[in-house]
Amino acid sequence: MKFIIKISSVLLPFFIYGQEINTTVNNKIASGDLIGNRDLSFGVKNILDELVQDKGYNLSENSESILAVDLLYFDVLRKSTTVGFATKTNNQIEIIAEAIFNDKKIKVKSTADNIITSTIVLNNNGTFNQQSVSVALKKLCEQIIIKLKI
């Protein structure tokens, strides 16, 4: 009996395998500084791959199941309030993407806020906080996974 248990425990993993999925991310942003930016596509793909693996899927280039994500919009919305010498700036990063999986197509929007209060007005010429971008991208990928029920 022990022999059968040992043999089955050695051979069983060869017969059991997880579902496979392939992820692709395309940058289709039409305006702004990030038009065709491969780094943004690569970053979203890494976050998406991690979340898909957390759901129990194996990543495979040859898989028939393909999760395709198209990044459509990326921008920073700025709102600034100044009273005397005090300034409050709210930078809101907004990302819109479209995802397709198993003939189901969804559109997802994600935002992240970065609020800055200061007593000196500094102009950073439209740059954005890296942490806010990371938060917005992670939220976007999580919403894609949830809405597509992966």
Explained architecture:
- A hairpin with a 2-residue loop joins strand 3 and strand 4.
- Helix 2 (about 40-55) packs across helix 3 (about 130-145).
- The two termini are about 40 Å apart.
- The protein is about 35% helix and about 40% strand.
- It is built from three helices and five strands.
- The protein has a five-stranded mixed beta sheet with strand order 2-1-3-4-5.
- The radius of gyration is 22 Å and the shape is elongated.
- It has about 150 residues and is of the alpha/beta class.
Largest sheet: 5 strands, mixed
Beta content: 35-45%
Major beta sheet, strand line-up: 2-1-3-4-5
Silhouette: elongated
Using DSSP, what is the number of strands? 5
List the helices and strands and how they pair.
Elements: H1 2-15, E1 20-27, H2 38-54, E2 58-59, E3 66-83, E4 86-101, E5 104-118, H3 130-147
Parallel strand pairs: 1-2, 1-3
Antiparallel strand pairs: 3-4, 4-5
Helix pairs in contact: 2-3
